[in-house]
């Protein structure tokens, strides 16, 4: 068991100072902006909670939030089952294991703006591999700069390409930790494949799946660079997710007050949903 | 060959397709790219790579990125080691709350922090230095490093510490010569993740730099927007950004699955 030792604080101090410097000061700046109005020249007026009220009532915010939830929902519903299925079908030992793992992890190591640029090149209607194939071989009229549905399918496919491996690698780590004896016992009992999955593999993957779902939720909810490079939020506003809208307000229109208020609401939603996920998924462990 | 091995093979093919297209493009001339579709480079050229390796604005982008990523990895792992030890071995006032607060920093969208970061680092005179980007990336890398290392350290029995202290080891000597070597894999994995997230993050890196510490992403964006449509050059630059990650991942290939599980399996 852990021993009580208040001196442990000294070990944590460097981490605390570095993170606090990066987290608290910018956060205070955001809070400061969120309650003031500025007309430039560093002149600020007290605004109270007006910006928060305005953002929470604005249709634009509701629309962006709706798109964001839809995007994150699609990502989780596709990537989690797909990732588990791929992990289950992977070899457990042999020389192909490290090769598979390295190739699968590769998309995650590509800078996010390059991922966006890469998918742009890949999907160009006449000269991209996918774009050419869809338009000229399959005969589907595909152009993500014109068609909102095509833009959505493309960014979701891009994210599946980019991040499913995270779920695969986490699930795989859970699977290889199961001793062979468990499978032998299941075989003797004549358990079906489904029963093996439900009562042996899934419970063993629970911790790592909790991490996977939490990370995928946070990162897909905060996604900015890739869709911004690929669609810039368009066509129209169809792929303007929450971050893209936020940057448009903050840096495009330079409306610092509303942007700051929106940042805080955004952060609060991320925190709340993460906390809900975490509590729901670890509820059984506490009892 | 079992039937189910088809699934990972198809999945890996799907992952490689866009990467193949990027690499193929990088060996084509701009004329060939714009002239029409071709599955393989017809007029194979190294011109795009030559431009990158001879033009300082291009290759300095890579050097800058590698510099701040390395600095960030060293700082993050160095400060996270003692902190993770404290979390894995001791109970202290506010430990759980502190751990959760650290993790919440991974949830803050970088877009939220871009402008305040710019102001903060300008105010302390670090704007456009490698150190600024390295420190800014600590925001999300330190929590991750602490999380991973704590997972690995929990797996080391406490008896190891106790035996060493009975044998007369001082704490720093024990930590440096016995404890850290025993979680080598964990340190490697943590360093890999710090490298990875610092390497792929470009929004803050671009916001915090102008000329001297400009990352490769900034050079790429400028090419994409200004010089018309130099797709071949852009593809070559993109291809080169994949290589450092691929090299680093090869070193941790045997720990990668456990690493992604943050040591918690």
From TrEMBL, chain A:
Membrane topology of this protein: Multi-pass membrane protein
Keywords, comma-separated and alphabetical: Membrane, Transmembrane, Transmembrane helix, Transport
GO biological process: transmembrane transport
Superkingdom classification of source: Bacteria
Sequence intervals crossing the membrane: 9-31, 69-88, 95-112, 118-137, 149-173, 260-281
GO cellular component: plasma membrane
Subcellular location, record wording: Cell membrane
tRNA-binding found in the keyword field: no
PROSITE patterns xref list: ABC_TM1
Start and end residues of each ABC transmembrane type-1 domain: 65-277
Similarity section: Belongs to the binding-protein-dependent transport system permease family.
Protein name: Sugar ABC transporter permease
Organism expressing this protein natively: Ruegeria sp. PrR005
Automatic annotation (TrEMBL), chain B:
GO biological process, one term: transmembrane transport
Keyword Hydrolase: no
Compartment(s): Cell membrane
Family note: Belongs to the binding-protein-dependent transport system permease family.
Entry superkingdom: Bacteria
Residue ranges of domain ABC transmembrane type-1 in the record: 62-252
Keyword Transcription: no
Transmembrane intervals: 7-27, 66-87, 99-118, 130-153, 174-200, 231-252
Main subcellular location: membrane
PROSITE patterns xrefs: ABC_TM1
Membrane topology: Multi-pass membrane protein
Protein name in UniProt: Carbohydrate ABC transporter permease
UniProt keywords, alphabetically: Cell membrane, Membrane, Transmembrane, Transmembrane helix, Transport
GO cellular component, one term: plasma membrane
């Amino acid at each position: 068991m852990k021993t009580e030792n208040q001196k442990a604080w000294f070990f944590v101090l460097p981490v605390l100072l570095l993170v606090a410097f990066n987290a608290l000061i910018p956060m205070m700046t955001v809070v400061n902006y969120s309650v003031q109005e500025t007309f430039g020249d560093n002149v600020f007026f007290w605004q109270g909670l007006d910006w928060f009220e305005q953002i929470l009532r604005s249709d634009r915010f509701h629309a962006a939030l709706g798109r964001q939830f839809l995007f994150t929902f699609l990502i989780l519903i596709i990537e989690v089952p797909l990732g588990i299925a791929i992990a289950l079908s992977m070899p457990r030992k042999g020389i192909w294991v490290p090769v598979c793992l390295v190739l699968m992890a590769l998309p995650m190591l590509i800078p996010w703006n390059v991922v966006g640029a890469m998918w742009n090149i890949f999907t160009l209607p006449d000269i991209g591999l996918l774009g050419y194939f869809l338009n000229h071989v399959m005969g589907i009229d595909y152009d993500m700069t014109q068609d909102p549905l095509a833009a959505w399918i493309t960014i979701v496919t891009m994210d599946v390409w980019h991040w499913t491996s995270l779920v695969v690698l986490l699930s795989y780590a859970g699977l290889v930790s199961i001793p062979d004896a468990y499978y032998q016992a299941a075989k003797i009992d004549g358990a079906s494949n489904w029963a093996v999955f439900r009562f042996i593999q899934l419970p063993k993957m629970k911790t790592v799946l909790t991490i996977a779902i939490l990370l995928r939720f946070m990162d897909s909810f905060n996604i900015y660079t890739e869709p911004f490079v690929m669609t810039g939020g368009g066509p129209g506003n169809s792929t303007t997710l929450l971050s893209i809208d936020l940057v448009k307000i903050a840096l495009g229109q330079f409306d610092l007050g509303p942007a700051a208020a929106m940042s805080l609401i955004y952060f609060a939603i991320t925190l709340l949903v993460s906390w809900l996920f975490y509590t729901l998924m670890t509820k059984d462990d506490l009892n | 060959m079992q039937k189910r091995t088809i699934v990972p093979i198809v999945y890996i093919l799907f992952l490689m397709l866009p990467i193949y297209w990027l690499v193929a493009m990088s060996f084509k001339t701009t004329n060939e790219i714009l002239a029409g579709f071709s599955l393989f480079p017809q007029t194979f050229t190294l011109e795009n790579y030559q431009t990158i390796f001879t033009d300082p604005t291009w290759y300095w982008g890579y050097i800058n990125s590698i510099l701040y990523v390395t600095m960030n990895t060293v700082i993050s792992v160095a400060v996270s080691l003692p902190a993770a030890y404290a979390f894995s071995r001791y109970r202290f006032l506010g430990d759980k709350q502190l751990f959760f607060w650290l993790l919440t920093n991974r949830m803050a969208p970088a877009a939220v922090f871009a402008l305040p970061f710019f102001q903060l680092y300008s105010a302390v005179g670090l704007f456009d230095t490698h150190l600024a980007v390295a420190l800014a990336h600590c925001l999300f890398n330190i929590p991750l490093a602490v999380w991973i290392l704590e997972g690995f350290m929990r797996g080391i029995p406490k008896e190891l510490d106790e035996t060493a202290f009975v044998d007369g080891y001082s704490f720093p000597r024990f930590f440096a010569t016995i404890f850290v070597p025993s979680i080598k894999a964990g340190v490697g994995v943590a360093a890999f993740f710090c490298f990875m997230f610092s390497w792929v993050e470009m929004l803050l890196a671009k916001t915090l730099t102008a000329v001297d510490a400009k990352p490769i992403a900034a050079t790429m964006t400028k090419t994409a927007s200004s010089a018309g449509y130099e797709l071949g050059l852009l593809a070559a630059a993109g291809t080169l950004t994949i290589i450092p990650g691929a090299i680093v991942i090869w070193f941790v290939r045997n720990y990668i699955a456990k690493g992604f599980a943050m040591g918690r399996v």
